[in-house]
Structures are given as structure tokens and as C-alpha cells.
Amino acid sequence: MHALALLAASVTVMGAVMAMTRRVAVHAVLYLVVTLLALATVLVMLGASFAAMLEIIIYAGAIMVLFVFVIMMINLGQPDSAREKEWLRPRAWCGPGVLATIMCAELLYCLNPPSGPAPAPITAHDVGLSLFGRYVLMVELVSFLLLAGLVSAFHIGRNRVGGR
Amino acid sequence: MTYSAFFTIILTPLVILGLATMLTWVERRLLGLWQDRHGPNRVGPGGMFQAVADGTKILFKQDWIPPFADRGVFILAPVIGMMTGLLPFAVIPVTMGMGIAGDMNVGLLFILGMMGLGVYAVVLAGWASNSKYALLGGMRAAAQMISYEVFMGLSLLGVVMMAGSFSLHDIVAAQAGLWFIIPQCLGFGVFMLAGIAQTHRLPFDLPEGENELGAGFHTEYSGMKLGMFFIAEYAGIVLVSSLVTTLYLGGWRGPFLPPALWFALKAGAMVVFFILLRASLPRPRYDQLMALGWKILLPLSLFNVMATGTILMLRAS
After folding, report:
1. Which of B76, B106, B120 is closest, CB to CB, to A49?
2. Residue B215 CA neighbour count, 13 Å, CB half
3. A105 and A131 together in one domain
């Protein structure tokens, strides 16, 4: 199990690296999808299969498809790939690289190897109870945000009758 | 892993592929029957081997990739279609003991996830073909499938609430007294419509509407890659039929006959119903399809969730 989790985690990291370095936007999105699927595998192995399935349905199945959809709409071509190449010069990697190294070091320092028996699988029931018990304020705030998004999308996309 | 589980894992995809292939013949024969013509009736008994002949033909056709296509993604698209078409069968319980992982505790979500990933096959095929008809088909497919995924998920919530579980095993077990098609008739209707749109079957096959888009997202495909799209589509029909059987028609339950036969009978009837829909209904316009979804199915499925929740609450208290 441990080896499998490590394998899935390394696929996640590889996918993320490939997603950053691809020049064709659709390829980058596909690698991001691979990253998300591998992350879902890691979650399943940690016992959080509900969260894993939500990750697949929402992130990989809906949000990433919308990304592909938008990329198809704006129809990127050769000039865009060339510009992307321009952006990905070695010098551009310095700043983010340093920051990521600091984060990674901190994470490794804080990370204690888990001890004791494996945690019990988290069911949909547990998730629902904690969402509407302990974290109910967060859920309400997020629904506010979504409502705001919905209203503004409706405002922008509305058919204006009579010009203007 | 026991020997029988291993055997099931090997056998299931083969059975599904065989079924999907045979279904091409069944569909053409039934369409012939309903449209007062013969359909393929020459090869083998009743034309049964027509599917084999077609399969052989499509295998030996030249496999051509257009020079303007994005080669990697072009090949990847039908592969994704096949994979996401076959994987959901892993969690469908044919009977109590038959099936690979029927009691997976998030089985229904797994199926929804795989259906969600199935969108990539169509969208990427449309994009990688680099031709306008394929691109239009791909964009239509993306919008249609994402929208109908929402209603499909919402309509299933009623079933999940009544069964109290995402596991398909538990859902069938909860239908011991009454099949869910009666208390969840609204959800059933929404699920059927969403299922047709999700598998982009006629009458909702706008992504490949041949009178306006050539062949839609698979215009540039030929040979076995095209065949893979076809087989994925027929596997999708079998999947939605099995899902309807499991979720609304009581799965393997039924008197006298063995459970596996009951499952096959119910799923088979649903498949025939799908074909009957194709034979009898005209294709709506694209905006009509989207309006039907967001203006009718969404409120209906939300109402279904609310009503089911209220009744369950009242019954519990």
C-alpha cells in the first residue's frame, strides 16, 4: 500500500511539472487532469474515497472540461505556443523555484511519519455531518460566493433587448 | 484475490465488448422492424453475423491520421472513450455475488466520475481533429454533457437519500419492498433524459448531428478508432440501462426466475426502449436541448430532492 501511495504521489508531481512546462495549452490541461486523477488515487489510499470521487467528478470531470472548452473557443495557435516558449525561459524559474524549495523544506520538517493503525475510512455520512455541523459557517459563506458568481454571470451573459 | 474474482475481472470487459458489438446488429434489425424494412438479414442466422462482418471490415480498414491533427491527443481520445465506457461496469452488481466491486461504498459516485471523464473523449476528439465540424461537435458535446451531468447527479440524489448509501449493493437491497421507480418517478424521468443526453444517443445526438456537422466529433476518424467510438457508445447504452435497472427497477430482484436472468431481462428491455426512442423521435434543435435541461429538468430534479428529503424527514420524526 505504501509503495502504491508513493507511486501515485510521484505521478502527481510529474503531472504537475509536465502541466507547467507544456507549450500547447490543451496538453498542459491534460497533464493537470492526470495530476488530479493521481491525487484522487492518493486520497483513496488514505481512506477518503468520498473526497477522491468528488475530486474526479468536480475537478477532473467538470472544471477541467470547462478549461478545455475555453481553450477550444479561443483557438490558440502557433504564435501562442511561441509566446509560451518565450515565457518559460530558465530565468523565469528562479523565483518560484526558491519559494517552492522553502515550502518543500518546511513541509518535510513538519511532516511526521504516521504512527499507529490506519485511520478508519471516511464515509459520505461523516463528511455530511461535519459540513453541516462544525463547518456550517464556511458552507454558507461559500454558497454566498457561488450565488454572487451566478448573479454576475447572469448579468454579463444576459440578452440586451433593444441595443445598448 | 481469489481465482473467481480474477476470472470475473477478465470476463467482464469481454462480455461488455461482445454485447456492444452485437447491439449494433440488434439496433439495425429493430430499426428495420419499426420502420417497415428488413435491416441486415443476410449474414448468418437472421443476419446475426453482420456485427462480426462489420467488425472485421473496420479492423482491416486503413487507419489514417490526418496530417493536420494533433497526433497524440487524436489517438488518446478514443482510448479515453473506451476506458471510461468500460470502467463503470466494475461497480455494477449483476446479482448478489456477480460483479467485480458491487459493494464499493462510493460506487455510484465512481460511475458519475467515469461518465464525467467520458466527456474528454468527445471533446478531445473534436479538438485534436483540427477541423471545423469536429470542433463544433466537440464544443456542443462539452456543453451538453456537462449540463446533463448536473441533472443526472441531482436526480440520483433522491435514490441515494432513500437507500442511505452510495453503494449499488445497498441501493438494490433497499428496494426489497418497492422498486424505486414508483416513489422516485420524477427522478427516473430526469435520469432517463440525462442518460440519453450523456451517451449522446438519438434524439439528443447533437454532437454528431449528421445533417449539420458531417459526423460531428468523429468526422476525421477512420478504421478501428472510429470503431472504438462506436463500441464506447453502445457500451454507454448498456451502462445506462444497467444503471436504470439497478437504481430504479430493483436490480436482480424478481419472482421465479434466477436473479441474473431478471437483471438481463430488465436491462435488455431498457436497451430496446433506447432503440425505440431513436426510431420514433426527431432530433431537437441545440438551444431547445439546453433550454429543456436548464429550465425544466433542473427545477424538477431540485424539487425531487426537496420533496424526497421532506418526506424522509417527516417519516423519521
Report:
1. B106
2. 11
3. no
